[in-house]
Every structure is written in structure tokens, then in C-alpha cells.
Amino acid sequence: MNKTAIITGITGQDGSYLAELLLEKDYKVVGLYRRSSSYHFERISSIVDHPNLTLLEFDLTDPSVILSILKQYEPDEFYNLAAMSHVGTSFHQPSTTFDINTMGVLHILEGIRTTSSATKYYQASTSEMFGKNYSVDKNNNKYQDENTPLIPQSPYAVSKVASHNLVRIYRYAYNIFATSGILFNHESPRRGENFLTRKVTKYIGQLVNNKTSDNLKLGNLQAYRDWGHAKDYVYAMYLMLQQDVPDDFVICTGQTHSVLNFVIKSFESVDLDYKQYVEIDPSLYRPAEVDYLCGRSLKAQKVLGWIPSTSFDDLVSEMIQSDIKVYANV
Ligand code: NAP
Ligand code: GDD
């Protein structure tokens, strides 16, 4: 019998890769998307007509539609990837951020508890929850893992900490299989255009094809991020729901690079000097920043057998080459 999985946020970066993965594994996938006044299925264009994919309109802020979909499908697995996922935006829209990222999660957990208690639930938790905090090993290396206390630094991060804790409580109080993946930054050619990596690679794609003469405006270049590939990370989500016991898992590469390093590498890969093109725009600085993220995924390696397969250099190169191709044809 095919398993059935519901994916919220199927039009997003991770949702599109996860849907492809589960369809390859013969799942019946129910992809939930929110209404839009224009076509927004670009990321799922290769699977949109797949016979095992059903697309349904919903909104994470509306509990009634979530409940009725859960009742109808009683899925084996539920991957909740929908979110207001931009940290900078969460400072301008804190209330919307909580409605979607926290109340939305509560609606799903309540739906599972009351109508579909055998469903395995995946929550998209985030390294952003560590905020200012890190652990230090005996060699003075700074890192974050499942035991590092959370000190969130943005409305986005606080909304995700709240839902992370809801998942933990529903797991223990109601015996629901609810797992949180604490994923560090992951990117791809499908990354949204207002996240740092894609903003840079999109600009280079335009520049190389003579489609822009503007400077690239960026904010803080001093923060460090542990960047992996989204395709590797959705595989970890799948593995988490194949376990017998729900738990929390950090997913990361274990290597960290500054934002500046990402920018330098990207421009160097097309033989350009970033200093001639990048301009600092103070309005892009965040009111509070997460300065340093570098994960340790020993638990995921041991329990899930998961390791990342894409290096930082390969990630940069894939994103640059993809955007050069995209903007050659625009
Ligand atoms: P993304 O590309 O921004 O996708 C977010 C998805 O959520 C989109 O499909 C979006 O729909 C949908 N959505 C937003 N608000 C909604 C609402 N009210 N109702 C229904 N759908 C809604 O994000 P991503 O990078 O794939 O990330 C997936 C999840 O992982 C998110 O929860 C994010 O917070 C979390 N996460 C991401 C990373 C990362 O580095 N990528 C790391 C850790 C955790 P539209 O297409 O209509 O906008
Ligand atoms: N977006 C953006 N735009 N970020 C910039 C810019 C800019 O113009 N200039 C500098 N930055 C810096 C940000 O201040 C941050 O330190 C870093 O680049 C990365 O920013 P983002 O790419 O927006 O990612 P993020 O780390 O804030 O959040 C992403 O990763 C989280 C996991 O740690 C998002 O995908 C979140 O949804 C996810 O939870």
C-alpha cells in the first residue's frame, strides 16, 4: 500500500524537493498551497501533473480547513513546511509571523490529536532558535546541537521556539509521533530571491548576462552561517519520519562561513571582484542579528545515518551556474 503524506508549503523551496522525493518513493502526496492571485507553481512544475500528487488550497491560519483535510486523508505522515520564513520580515510583521508559524502549528497538532492520532508529524524547526547562543567544546570550538539552550533573536525565531515546544509537549502529553528537525540554513537554485545566497547569485546571473547596471545592496556581511543543500536536508526530514520513536534532530554541515565569504566566493567564481559591485545598505541591517551558526549533527549521523553530500563550494557553484542560465533566457 502506498503511504500518504501531506506537505504544507509545497510551493516553497523545501516543499518542492520533498514532494519530488516522496513521489519517487511511491507516496501519494497531498500538497497544500495558499491562494494566490497569480500562478505560483514554478518550483513544482516537473510534478504538477503527477498522478500521485493532489494539490489543495488552504491557509495555515485557518484551523477549519486543516481539520477537514486531516479528517479526509488521515495521512501516514504530515510535513509542515509552510511558514513566514524570512527573519528580516518578521521584525516588520511579527503578528502575522506568529499567526502562521505558531498558531498554524497548534491547529495542525490539535487536528492530529483529535482526528488522526496515528499520523507522524514533522515540524520545520530552525537553527535560528539558537539565536545568540552556542556551546563550546574542550578545544574552544563553538557549535550548536540538540543540547544547546535556545536564546532566540527575532520574532521569527521566537515563533519557531514556541512551536518547537508545542511539538515537544504534544509528543509527551498525548503520545503523538511529533518530530522536530532543527535545520541549519539550506539553499539551492530554488531558494527564495530575498534570502542572502539567492540574492547574490541572482545578481551575478543578471550581471554576467548584462541585465543589470545597478550595485548589489546588502546588509550585515559579518554574520556566520552553516549552509547546506536543500535536497540533502529534505532527505533528513524523510528519514526522521521513518523512525520508530519521535525526537529532535540537528541537521547541518558542521562548517561555517561568513556572509562576506559567500559573497567573495560567488564573485570569484565568475572572475569578478565583489568590491566593485557590492554596496552596504544600512536599512538591510536587522534590529537584532544572529552572529554565529555552526551545527553538530552527530545524533542525526548516528540515529538516522544521515550525512550531507554537497560541499559549500559545490553549492555556490550550482547556484551561480543556475542563475547565469536563468538570466541568459530572461
Ligand atoms: P519558503 O521557500 O519560504 O517556503 C515557505 C512556504 O510556506 C511557501 O510555500 C509559502 O507559500 C508557504 N506559506 C507561507 N505562509 C503560508 C500560509 N499562511 N498558509 C499556507 N502556506 C503558507 O521556505 P523554505 O526555505 O522552503 O523552508 C521550509 C520550512 O523550513 C519553513 O518552515 C522554514 O521556516 C523552515 N526552515 C528553513 C530553513 C532554510 O534554511 N531554508 C532552515 C530551517 C528551517 P507561498 O509560495 O504562497 O509564499
Ligand atoms: N536576506 C538578506 N538580505 N540577508 C542579508 C542581506 C540581505 O540583503 N545582507 C546581509 N544579510 C545577512 C543576514 O543579516 C543574515 O545574517 C545572513 O545574511 C543570512 O540571511 P538570510 O539568507 O535571510 O537567512 P537567515 O539566516 O536570516 O534565515 C534563514 O535560515 C534560517 C535557519 O538558520 C531562513 O531560511 C530561515 O527561514 C531559517 O530558519
Task: For the structure shown, list the relevant keywords.
single chain; 330 residues; alpha/beta; Rossmann fold; UDP-galactose 4-epimerase, domain 1; 10 helices; 15 strands; globular; binds NADP nicotinamide-adenine-dinucleotide phosphate; binds guanosine-5'-diphosphate-alpha-D-mannose
Report on this model:
- This protein has 330 residues and is an alpha/beta fold.
- The chain has 2 domains: 211 residues, NAD(P)-binding Rossmann-like Domain (Rossmann fold), CATH 3.40.50; 82 residues, UDP-galactose 4-epimerase, domain 1 (Alpha-Beta Complex), CATH 3.90.25.10.
- 39% of the residues lie in helices and 17% in strands.
- The strands form 5 sheets. The chain has a 7-stranded parallel beta sheet with strand order 3-2-1-4-5-8-13, sandwiched between helices.
- β1, α1 and β2 form a beta-alpha-beta unit.
- α2 runs parallel beside α4.
- The radius of gyration is 20 Å and the shape is globular.
- The relative contact order is 0.13.
- The mean pLDDT is 98.
- Bound molecules: NADP nicotinamide-adenine-dinucleotide phosphate and guanosine-5'-diphosphate-alpha-D-mannose (GDD).
- The site of guanosine-5'-diphosphate-alpha-D-mannose has 22 residues, from α3 and α6.
